[in-house]
Design a protein that fits this description.
Two copies of one chain form a homodimer.
Chain A lengths: L3 E2 L9 H12 L16 H18 L5 E6 L2 H13 L5 E6 L2 H10 L4 E7 L20 E5 L1 E2 L4 E2 L10 E4 L16 E5 L10 E6 L16 H6 L9 H17 L1 H22 L3 E3 L10 E6 L5 H7 L5 E2 L10 E4 L6 H16 L2
Parallel strand pairs in A: 1-13, 3-4, 3-5, 5-8, 8-9
Antiparallel strand pairs in A: 2-10, 6-7, 9-10, 11-12, 12-14
Helix pairs in contact in A: 1-6, 2-6, 3-4, 6-7, 7-9
């Protein structure tokens, strides 16, 4: 039985991505070779890469003065690479602290320049998004984490700030339309809404390529990736193909506006049950509730283990919360069908009735 | 028709790896989830990672005072990470230059310390392995590239030097038994003999963890990978699974001694034909001929295009040589069966007869 996968990441992808990836492992497009054994310089992979980049540009309406790069290493690697590439020793980056991911990004940035945490919701166990903060107009950039997987909060607005914005969109990219022009750099580990684990997407304003003055290693220099169309070295061929398949699925379904509608519907369904059901309570404040990661706890803590057991016969997978929040986390990424959310709601209601 | 894949990399893997990878994309071990959607913290992936590390240790007889790490980014990334982690600003690394890969490694190292190219075969278009070189006893390490994909030369001996040795084994690791104790650090982009593109294997002597004194970013610090069993961040789950499947296949076939015998037999078959057939001539000097990448050219340069056309009906794929050598390169990695080499030899003989 196919499980209802609410895992936080690596996470569910569309069923047709699994099927087409499997076929490509056996024989890619009938060429007599597995996708796993073709050269990254082959015409087949060149076509995969180019179509992927074109679809990202089309779906996100990326302006022409931005470069789209594929790198390895996940968002954690970018916590270093961003200040390494952008920030000079005597410059400052501002951070809004909304999760351990923004904390990690800030800590790594200290190796390359100065940092300021200008706002934080740490004192409330990160259950809200700080809004009344003032950026330092002399800072080089403001760093935001748009969706916070552990605590289930999300920025939904692409705001204009007085300084350039860097945004970690690892867990909500492609879940809604984004006004790319409001950001100088967007980065995203792909293993939520884009593809399987092992690739990172960077969208960077061209004027920022080569910004920091330090001498750079080639593989840590965004300019090298931009100049070589992400083919300076061997990229993860199979992983990029899973991105292409997911992007094709996104386009076929109607793009990011349609995806946003679906994600709103899924989140509304589950939050309504959390708010109605006396056995559960949400973690994040209502106005900042993430559509991607829906965190809730039992009103009676002794129920938590029982509920995790209770949902197993429903085929519900991956809803155990992160240890710093406890309770439950239902991740509702793009590929999770609303039917899975309905099954979880049914299970919550049945659990209530069993009491 | 399944092609005979002589591509230089990403390259052929065992047929059963393709089949089992495909099955895992659909459903991993009957758990109701694709391998592409499972968490890197799941018990399933933990088992994949642990078995992979254990098989590497077993097959290569890695001594207990070494750590085995999985990183992303390929060998190119290690050209930076090795000096970053090992070499202090005032220290020197010695290089033997045998290919563009060792050249790139040396160039990147200059960012972190001093370098010396103590031997090079550049003047002979890298057609041999320099042997009469003297290491600087005050250097921190000697860097070697054990197999040179473009020029088709290979070091076969694990020699003891007066200083620690760092070796790029990207294209011949697992092709023969290796005396790991002769090296302080071995690195290998996996996409030849280990798995699909997107993972790098590091085998490092524990006393070298944390060696360089510079403050380090977490994702660029070998110690972080060692402490976290390569799970500080999300690793490329699927890619590591292809490594596990390949390692299981290696063990089942009899391990690295058996693999060395097979590779010797394949190389002997093809080099014998190159030496016999008046239409072809080898690039590398006989004593340094690689078993992995067999480079040869036409004795009549005008035949080259014709031969590339001639072999197509045989299902022979990927034998066009790199532009700096020209001619042909038949890569004979572990997973290439001797039957494929025989087909190439047959084609060479038929081409001769067609003249």
């Amino acid at each position: 039985m196919k499980k209802h996968n609410f895992g936080a990441g690596p996470s569910i992808l569309p069923q047709e991505v699994f099927e087409q990836s499997a076929q490509a492992c056996l024989d890619y497009n009938g060429i007599g070779l597995s996708l796993l054994e073709i050269s990254h310089r082959s015409k087949e992979f060149t076509a995969i890469l180019e179509e992927s980049l074109a679809l990202i540009k089309e779906l996100l309406h990326v302006p022409d003065d931005y470069s789209i790069l594929f790198l390895q290493g996940g968002a954690n690697m970018q916590f270093n690479m961003i200040p390494y590439n952008i920030l000079n020793d005597d410059e400052t980056a501002d951070f809004v602290e909304t999760d351990i991911w923004s904390t990690r990004a800030e800590e790594e940035t200290r190796l390359y320049g100065k940092t300021n945490i200008i706002a934080s919701s740490k004192e409330a166990n990160f259950n809200y998004i700080p809004k009344d903060f003032k950026v330092d107009e002399h800072a080089t950039y403001l760093h935001l984490t748009s969706n916070n997987t552990i605590y289930g909060t999300e920025f939904f607005e692409d705001k204009q700030y007085a300084i350039p914005v860097v945004c970690d969109m690892s867990s909500d990219i492609f879940s809604r339309p984004v006004d790319i022009s409001k950001y100088h750099l967007i980065y995203a580990g792909a293993q939520k809404n884009l593809g399987c684990a092992g690739i990172t997407l960077i969208i960077i304003k061209n004027e920022w390529l080569g910004r920091s003055k330090r001498p750079k290693s080639k593989m840590w220099d965004y300019s090298i990736y931009a100049k070589n169309n992400s083919l300076y070295n061997t990229p993860p061929v199979f992983t990029i193909y899973t991105c292409l398949l997911t992007l094709r699925w996104l386009k076929k379904l109607g793009g990011l506006s349609e995806m946003e509608n679906r994600n709103k519907a899924k989140a509304a369904l589950l939050y309504a049950e959390i708010d109605r059901n006396p056995l559960f309570t949400g973690h994040a404040v209502p106005e900042d509730r993430s559509r991607m990661n829906i965190n809730f706890v039992s009103t009676h803590p002794e129920d938590e283990e029982a509920f995790l057991e209770f949902v197993k016969p429903y085929g519900i997978h991956g809803i155990k919360g992160y240890r710093t929040v406890g309770g439950f986390r239902a991740s509702c990424y793009n590929a999770l069908p609303i039917e899975s959310v309905q099954v979880l709601v049914d299970a919550m209601q049945a659990f209530e009735q069993s009491k």
